[in-house]
Predict the structure.
Amino acid sequence: MARFGRDRRSARKAEVGQTPPEPTSRDEGSEPNLHVEPDGADQPARAKPSRHYDRRAKLLERTLLTSTGTVRLTFEVVDGRPFVFLPGYFVSVESEIPGVGFRHSPYCILSRPGQAPVFELIVRLVGGGERSAYLGSLEVGDLLAFRGPGGHSMLPRASGLDLVLLATGVGIGPLCSLVGELLEGGFDRPIRLFWGLRLAEDICLIDELEAFASVYPSFSYRISLSAPPPGWNGVRGRLTEIVPALLGTLGASEYRLVGNGAMTEEMATALGDMGVGKEVIYREAYFNGRHRPDKAVLAAIRSRFVASDLLAPSALDAADLFHLDRPLGRTRRPSAPKED
Ligand SMILES: Cc1cc2nc3c(=O)[nH]c(=O)nc-3n(C[C@H](O)[C@H](O)[C@H](O)COP(=O)(O)OP(=O)(O)OC[C@H]3O[C@@H](n4cnc5c(N)ncnc54)[C@H](O)[C@@H]3O)c2cc1C
């Protein structure tokens, strides 16, 4: 397990000694100028390129993965500086938008650390999206200006726990990196990946996922379509609708949730309500990061869970649990003054 215990600190150690130091985390404030917005709703464009985006990579290959607009971009770092990362890390890209200026956005790394200085991104070309359109417009041989890699490792924190991975759309990227790294490094706990897409035309990366599943019986994956075509025999529905009923236990796993902020926030909150500790849930919202789950939606998600190995705080009345004569938190009414 030593291999999987490699955490942010050790990744940072690997970066120490490089000049200049690389950003490590958007939350830790070590690199205040690493422009990362949780949902892409972001800072205004800059008239000039930022001096912080001083790293360079050359585009080696661009592959259209789906007819619905998903591309895989293969870059090679050409600035001569080390490119050290863990699964879950991202690069922050500077895009030059004609007539607008320079904008910045993070993209998680799809490839595995051992492939550096080559790295891959999987990018969804979203309608009206300027920064994804910029990446999609790059030609082989073009140079990318970026910062990083930085971010949080998605490697398991505890030994002996299974992994449950949930991705929507291109949130699959860092989870592919994670799965490859763990399986080929000897991780022996079950890894279950649930991937939510809208259309059958959105499905991609099947060769990679099949290769993992055929070589490593401990890995399984399921794709669920929220708008399946007629005759679709696979799983259908949003992840929040189908995954709770597929998890026989909750307490023996760590969770990684990546993609649409509605899914990551709703699932993380529901898991917490079911008694799963925050320390084993990691989430990364690519967009919709400020989504606040609706109470009724959460109640519906909770009702779909079948696992009963944890105490679900939301479902318990503490008074029943501890045989109290009144609910916890309710203060006893002051008793009436005694009359003589
Ligand atoms: C930590 C982190 C890692 C990220 N990694 C990736 C990655 O690996 N690949 C990737 O493609 N994006 C990734 N993103 C999102 C990325 O940074 C941009 O926000 C995204 O490319 C959209 O930027 P835009 O300017 O093209 O569109 P915007 O103008 O920001 O958005 C246009 C519209 O599209 C919606 N939208 C944005 N992204 C998506 C999506 N993926 N699917 C459906 N609708 C969407 C927005 O909510 C908005 O309504 C990541 C974001 C974060 C915070």
Residues 8-150 form a domain with the Elongation Factor Tu (Ef-tu); domain 3 fold (CATH 2.40.30.10). The chain is about 20% helix and 25% strand. Confidence is low (pLDDT under 50) at residues 1-41. The pocket of flavin-adenine dinucleotide is lined by residues 38, 40, 90, 105-108, 121-124, 126, 128-133, 169-170, 173, 284, 286-288 (CB under 6 Å).
